[in-house]
Design a protein that fits this description.
Blueprint: H1 9-28, H2 31-48, H3 50-53, H4 85-121, H5 123-138, H6 141-152, H7 156-183, H8 186-193, H9 198-234, H10 246-253, H11 262-289, H12 291-297
């Protein structure tokens, strides 16, 4: 027989809605954060809608128009093979942003449950997971990712999975710290003392309270992952020809940098704008969630 709803549940829902509304108002009052959110939305729309907005396919070659510079037919010019720069920029953004999201998703799937486990259980699991994260964080993320690629082999998917594993250590530390703060709260101790199942405590008490630092860290990790993808593809270890990504476009532009600098300028601007938007949104989320989140994040 289903358990009847407690009479205070509507009040609980109203309090949660009120907190969400308060956070939304704080974020909306942060003009740089709103500007970053709008910019990020525009970037996502034009890149994910690349098949609709791009005038050409990214692999369409026209040697007769190679290195043409901006023209009415090619608004941002063409590359050394006569491929339309605007089209490759839109499709390349789709690849770069999706790759960044893949690495952060992997980091979240690994770091979130392990961070909650270490912070809540403590003792042996906490010690073991901390030592593992110490080892991963001993090396710079990009260097360790390139080392993994050297063993497994080049490719964008391989690179982003490797990067996600490396980033999971950073996310683990943030979630563990937030869990330790929540674990010391009186209502958690009360739930344990009355025999509340551990799964219920983790899902209904701890997880909602570690989401704020998680969201903040994800926004910053997306910016870092994008720059890492650009660097890896620039080195020829990420997106392989003829696949277009912002990093591979920069790498191919270096051969023509003296005669056609716009080949490097346009992808560079796109990377800068996307990175800026992620960071502005992250700063806005951190300010909106307030002092308690910053304490847990540190």
């Amino acid at each position: 027989m289903p358990r009847p709803k407690k009479p205070e549940e509507p009040a609980v829902r109203r309090r949660r809605a009120g907190r969400f509304g308060q956070l939304a108002r704080r974020f909306a009052g942060n003009k740089p954060a709103v500007a970053g959110g709008v910019l990020l939305f525009v970037i996502l729309v034009v890149t994910m809608g690349a098949p609709l907005f791009a005038p050409y396919t990214p692999e369409q070659i026209n040697i007769a128009d190679r290195l043409s510079g901006p023209t009415p037919a090619h608004w941002l010019g063409t590359d050394a093979l006569g491929r339309d720069t605007l089209s490759r920029l839109l499709f390349g953004g789709q690849i770069s942003l999706a790759a960044s999201a893949l690495s952060v998703a992997i980091a979240t799937l690994i770091g979130l449950p392990l961070g909650i486990l270490a912070g809540y259980v403590g003792r042996g699991p906490d010690w073991l997971l901390n030592r593992a994260s110490d080892i991963l964080m001993t090396f710079p993320a990009l260097v360790l990712t390139i080392a993994i690629i050297a063993v497994v082999g080049p490719g964008l998917t391989t690179a982003m999975i490797s990067l996600g594993i490396v980033y999971s250590a950073r996310l683990f530390r943030v979630i563990r710290s937030a869990t330790l703060v929540v674990r010391q709260e009186v209502y958690i101790e009360a739930s344990i003392s009355i025999g509340t199942p551990g799964r219920t405590i983790l899902l209904r008490r701890i997880l909602p309270n570690v989401l704020p630092p998680l969201l903040i860290q994800i926004s910053f990790l997306l910016a870092s992952a994008l720059l890492a993808e650009v660097t890896i593809s620039l080195l020829g270890l990420g997106a392989l020809p003829p696949t277009a990504s912002w990093g591979s476009m920069l790498g191919q532009a270096f051969a023509e940098i003296r005669g056609t600098p716009s080949l490097a300028v346009f992808p560079g601007i796109a990377i800068a704008l996307a990175t800026l938007s992620f960071n502005l949104v992250g700063d806005g989320l951190r300010d909106s969630f307030g002092r308690a989140t910053r304490k847990a994040e540190g």
